[in-house]
Specification:
about 210 residues; single chain; flat; two-stranded antiparallel sheet; mainly alpha
Length: about 210
């Protein structure tokens, strides 16, 4: 019985390690691409697309009546993230409830795309390389959030054994919650990368 118990413990440890190894491979692949100097513009554009879809889905849900949307919340979110203060998703006096979810999505996409193009133009005019800034910012955000994620996964692993007392398989719970935490980390990396790119101060010969 003791040996059987030890076997189960070792098996669980390996399964826990498999979860982290899979996540580590995804993150390290992203880091390698950045460190090898690959063009990250397509990655950044994909991040923007996912952020837009996620935000519009939260504030202007497709299966919810437009009267129940939160257009102010949507504007506030993108004002914090990337849109200039003088740019509004909904024009003054415009009724958001007259728009469809698809129309809101298209308008936000157009505005954010233009804002990013304008940001690149400013950075380029200042003599800096936008592709290099994208790589630097992305690498910093990945490293910062990944280190925090490792700590959080370690804490989850230490406490997950208690799930067995609640008739829950600790390995299943670890995989499920670990996946949710990983997805949350990816979303945070995306938002922080975009935010920092728009906040980056460009000086001749240096980027901060």
């Amino acid at each position: 019985r003791i040996e059987s118990r030890n076997f189960e413990i070792r098996k669980h440890v390996l399964q826990y390690d498999d979860v982290m190894n899979q996540q580590r491979e995804i993150i390290y692949a992203q880091r390698r691409a950045v460190l090898m100097g690959e063009d990250m513009k397509a990655n950044i554009q994909e991040m923007l697309s996912m952020l837009i879809k996620r935000a519009v889905g939260v504030y202007c849900q497709e299966n919810v009546q437009p009267e129940e949307w939160d257009p102010q919340g949507l504007e506030a979110y993108f004002a914090r993230l990337c849109l200039p203060k003088d740019v509004h998703i909904f024009e003054q006096g415009e009724q958001s409830e007259r728009m469809t979810h698809k129309q809101v999505l298209e308008r936000v996409t157009d505005l954010v795309t233009k804002a990013y193009d304008d940001r690149e133009a400013v950075i380029t005019q200042a003599g800096a390389d936008m592709r290099e800034i994208e790589r630097i910012v992305l690498l910093r955000c990945v490293d910062d959030h990944w280190m925090d994620h490792i700590d959080e996964m370690d804490q989850l692993r230490q406490g997950i054994g208690l799930r067995a007392y609640g008739q829950n398989d600790p390995v299943v719970a670890y995989k499920k919650e670990g996946y949710e935490m990983f997805e949350s980390m990816i979303a945070a990396i995306q938002a922080e990368t975009i935010r920092r790119i728009f906040l980056a101060r460009v000086q001749v010969g240096a980027t901060t």
